[in-house]
Amino acid sequence: MHIKFSRFLALSVAGCWLLCGQQAIAQGSFIFHTKLTNPNPDIFFGPDGVPVYNGGAGGPHSVVSIDLNHDGTKDYRVVATGTVTWGFQMEGSSLNAVWAHPSGGPLDRSSYIVPLSYGTSIGPLLPAPDQWVTTEQNPFGVNGSGFSSYTFAGASGLFINQTAYAGLQFYLGADVYYGWIKVQEIPALAGGGIVFEYAYDIRPNSAKDPDLAPLPFNPHPELPVTEISPGIFVVDDTGIPDTPAQEISRKLRRAAAERAKQIASDPVLAKAEQEKQQAAQAASFALTFEEVSPWWHDPIQLSDGTPTDFQTAIDNSITNLVVMTATNDWRQEALDRALAWAATNDLPTEIASGGDMDTKARLISIDEGRFT
């Protein structure tokens, strides 16, 4: 399903004004919209939206949780994080994804959230090379798609100094939905901004075929629609005759459902299916480790083996360099002794190296009376 922002936003705002609350379902539109307000407005941030910024080691303003359908389950997090590198990013729960643009080559797991303008369509197919990107949670940590990133070398990201929309693809059970979140990125926060509002399309389920994914739109607006749980609607289409394709499709789905029941009731089949899935997962992890193995390294340590971070290791190297430089006086002393020895013995301190190049060898020290 593609959702036009023009329809999406207009109906969302109308619904919000209608109910005068923090969240609203726009009547007849199947849009669930949530507008955020700042619980602690001050001279820096106004009443609209919730500020997100890293106050050092996280802090109370570094995370905003997003519950799109208000069922008590966190669907996304907007996070400001970092100590040496500061990031402003989104993390989706489970398979929940965000519309993003790859930031590097095929082995680079990082991606930039694409800022979308009013009127953009959101759906399963995205213009290349953009893609729906899920949060990666692996031995390397959490890697969410970023609004922006700041380091001592500079800033990167497509959302820098913009107020725009980010496209969302998320799941309720096995059903996929599409929505958006409106965010302002503020460079002065060096990895932070304001989350204003978010919304998603509420697509009705078929009462006749409840096992199917929600309909891409309500094909029978004249029929009654019932909300059976938060954000889940069912249209009563049981009186609509089936088409031949619908009859065939239903038979195939029922056969597949019966096969699933057999597997669930048969320990041998269930174990075989589980082992198959585990083998596929292990192969996927092995491929990932193989791809990143050229960049694998041991944890950063000091010379005595003490674990440390990158900045401390750099500071320690600088200190060691200063100490080593201070102990280089012996080289000057060796040169002074060599020059005095050459003068006493009436020997040259420079001699031609020979060959085609006009180069010279210089005396820098002596070893038991021999030139070096």
Kindly describe this structure.
This protein is α+β, with helices and mostly antiparallel strands and 372 residues long. It has three domains: 3-202, no CATH class; 241-296, no CATH class; 329-371, no CATH class. 26% of the residues lie in helices and 30% in strands. The chain contains five helices and 25 strands. The chain has helices spanning 5-19, 244-265, 267-292, 310-326, 329-344, and strands at 3-4, 23-26, 31-35, 50-52, 63-66, 76-81, 86-92, 97-102, 111-113, 121-122, 131-134, 136-138, 141-143, 145-151, 154-156, 163-172, 175-185, 193-201, 205-206, 225-229, 232-235, 350-352, 360-362, 366-367, 370-371. The strands form seven sheets. Strands 2, 3, 4, 8, 9, 11, 16, 17 and 18 form a nine-stranded antiparallel β-sheet that branches. It has a five-stranded antiparallel β-sheet with strand order 5-6-7-14-15, with no helix packed on it. A hairpin with a 2-residue loop joins strand 14 and strand 15. The N and C termini lie far apart (81 Å). Mean pLDDT is 75; it is low at 1-29.
